[in-house]
Amino acid sequence: MTFNIQFQIAGIVLMILVLSLWQKEKKLRFYSEGIFGVFLWAIFFCILLDILSIFALNYEEKIGTVLMTAACKIYLISIVYVVFMLLLYTMAGIYIKKRDIEKAMCFHSIPLLVDIVLVTVLPIYKYLEGGQIYTYGAGVQMTYFFSLFYLSDALYHTIRYRKRMTKKRREQVWFMLSAFIIAAVVQMFHKELLLIGFTMAVGMVFMYTKLENPESNLDKITDTFNLYAYQEYMNKLSGTEKDFSMIGVSIGGFRFVHENFGTHNENLLLRQIADFLSGLEGAIVFRDSQTEFILIFENGLLSEKAAERIRERFEEPWNIQIMNIDLQVYLTYLPSRYVVNSADEITEVLHYFMSESKKRGAGALICIDSEEISRKKDAENTEKELQWALENDKVEVYYQPIYSIKDGRFISMEALVRLFDREGKFMMPDLFIPIAEQNGMILELGKAVFRKVCSFMKNAELEQYGIEYVEVNLSVIQCMQDDLSKQLLETMKEYEMPPSRLNFEITETATANSESTLLHNMAEIIKAGGTFSLDDYGSGYSNLNYIIGFPFHIIKLDKNMVCSYFNSEKAKIAMKYTVSMVKELGIKMVAEGVEDEEQYNTMKELGIDFIQGYYFSKPLPEREVTDFLKLRNPK
Ligand code: C2E
Ligand code: CA
Ligand code: CA
Question: How many CA atoms lie within 13 A of 303 on its CB side?
Fold first, then answer.
């Protein structure tokens, strides 16, 4: 009796190892993942059948010729089946659409069926040579023939569609193909070396570790799926017509956690949230970025419930150790993939609204519907118009006079940008400034505005009408530039404009975002004679540190603060104290958005220095503002 099965045993051990790892991992049920799974099992059974057939050959007398032949034939068929699976695996890396893979699979399985029929009916015989038992005959030849056929087919696909495969996948398929071919050739010449099964097993170990290890789809910290898996999964979904819904979850408040509790606790908290999200029925959870997750639901009904549950959960605190921590959640809900025109755009649209959701405030839920999509289109349109206006010099600046109570006249004005689109229609800054800030065009826009202001001031000789300085808005993004002061000073020099004739308005967001850069820039401009205002005071967090820590000459009270003064007793008290404190610090104050006499008188009584608002004038174009000043601010 001869049992030449050392290689097969080694192969089986390897396959058991790979299969047990594979079965255990969390998977995404990709189509190619499924094919790989079948491929693994096919190889396992093929090697097992190899061993069984060797036993059957040795024990023919005991089990009978029929059973022996059957065992050998099943083994032979399993070899062709394995090579067929290699072809399918190759094709799964080429075709994205499930339908295409299925079509190809049907078509290419015909030779397999033919092989099954032929091997079943054709005879095989056994013979002994050099103390080993072998099989031969037409059935064996068929196996060689059809294996070779599928190998060539796989080779053809890898060469013909190489561009459609990822590099990694291409390398793996090449590796497997060469391993199969080499093992088959070696076995053809050295019949005693039964290498095929073992080679296949080694090949699978490589494939598993390099390409198909489901762990490479996981995010190590949260144990959710990572971005790579997300892309693969979206590819899979876009290949089908099946509807699905998505929830984008952005979480705020982690900076505080990071600064106060460190990375370790931050990760624990993230893990807690990820576990909660993964526990939502029907959710497949992907980690999109540090504190953002994307949930995909193949069942739309479950997604609606999930969104509600997430919102509710974030109303409660989370805890690390014994601390309770409040986190903010911003949700973006895509109820159906068909809200978006093409599958390729889904991720882009989702990300767009995820960043929008943060602007809409904590607990906000944006439901991406046709209305939101058209709003997005409007924003894209605005971006195009903005580009056009910049390229075609359609940027204009309006001026809103600022009244000094002490002097009883207008001593300054705020420069406010206006754009005209291709149809000559007016575009308001609230619409295009946020967009310009997002895409960086604000830098160019800021420069254009500042040139216009300097040029107007120079030509109109505004000082003769009593205008001592003009206030110019600087965006957060402008304030992040190292050389901002240099740029501004150069432009002023070009227009022979003394820096003392300019005041720059900055918001709290700018001071919070680029403290050291901003302080340096402010110092340079102040040294040259310029001044700064803190804009929109009272609209955000109104941190007193900014007033104390930055060299502001003026604080501008936001129009909402002015309004709320009349609505609430508390706001009244807060305002009174703010004004007296700011005055004591030697800083001047402007009340913005003053619309009527009552407001004007109240601000005056409070001791505010300057008034800006529709009560005196709306922002006016160059010509009109000069006329206004001529009339109201006589020499
Ligand atoms: P802001 O700096 O707070 O400007 C004051 C805004 O209040 C202006 O809106 C002005 O027209 C409006 N306003 C003035 N008086 C009244 C009033 O009595 N009642 C009401 N309801 N509103 C009044 P505008 O011109 O639409 O500008 C909006 C925002 O766009 C500005 O808010 C500013 O943040 C930004 N912006 C405007 N021009 C520029 C610019 O050249 N550069 C930058 N970076 N931002 C600008
Ligand atoms: Ca302003
Ligand atoms: Ca303001």
Answer: 24
Cα–Cα nearest to 245, from 292, 305, 298: 298
Helix axes 442-460, 429-439, angle to 10 degrees: 130
Stated as kind and residue range, the H or E segment containing 420 is: strand 409-420
d(CA 229, CA 217): 5
User: Using CA atoms in the order 392, 393, 395, 397, what is the torsion angle rounded to 10 degrees?
Assistant: -160
530 CB within 6 A, ligand 1 = no
Task: Tell me the HSE value of 609 on the side-chain side, using a 13 A CA sphere.
Answer: 15
**Residues forming beta bridges with residue 102, ordered by sequence position:** none
Nearest residue CA, atom 46 of ligand 1? 473
Q: Ligand nearest 590 Cα, by number?
A: 3
Determine the distance separating the centroid of ligand 3 and the alpha carbon of 591, expressed in angstroms: 9
CA of 446 to the centre of ligand 2 (A): 13
- Pairing status of strand 323-325 against strand 328-334: unpaired
Q: Which amino acid is at 624?
A: E
Residue 584 has pLDDT above 70, yes or no: yes
Q: What is the DSSP letter of 173?
A: H
Neighbours of ion ligand 2 (CB under 5 A): 473, 505, 535
Q: Among 592, 620, 625, name the best residue to mutate to test ligand 1's pocket (greatest count of ligand atoms within 8 A of Cβ).
A: 592
pLDDT tier for residue 162 given thresholds of 50, 70 and 90: confident
Percent of the residues in the chain that have a pLDDT greater than 70, as a whole number: 98
282 phi-psi bin (left φ>0, alpha ψ -120 to 50, beta other): left
Q: Report, in angstroms and rounded to the nearest whole number, the Rg of the chain calculated over CA atoms.
A: 37
Q: What are 414's two structure tokens? A: 């705020």
Q: With b meaning 16 or more CB within 10 Å and e meaning fewer, what string describes 40-50? A: bebbbbbbbbb
Ligand 3 centroid, distance to 491 Cα (angstroms): 24
257 Cβ partners below 8 Å, 6+ apart?
265, 266, 269, 320, 325, 327
Q: Model-level pTM? A: 0.69
Euclidean distance between the first and final Cα of the chain, in Å?
A: 122
Q: Does the C-beta of 222 come closer than 6 Å to ligand 1? A: no
The verdict on the CB of residue 605 being under 6 Å from ligand 1 is: no
Please, how many CA atoms are within 13 Å of residue 604, restricted to the half-sphere of its CB? 12
Q: Kind and range of the H or E element at 532?
A: strand 531-537
535-553 confidence digits (pLDDT tens): 999 887 667 778 888 999 9
Residue tagged 């190489």 (tokens): 162
The residue behind tokens 């696909």 is 157
Q: What is the pLDDT of residues 169-191, one digit of tens each?
A: 788 888 888 888 888 888 777 76
> Which of 546, 635, 611 shows the shortest CA–CA distance to 414?
611
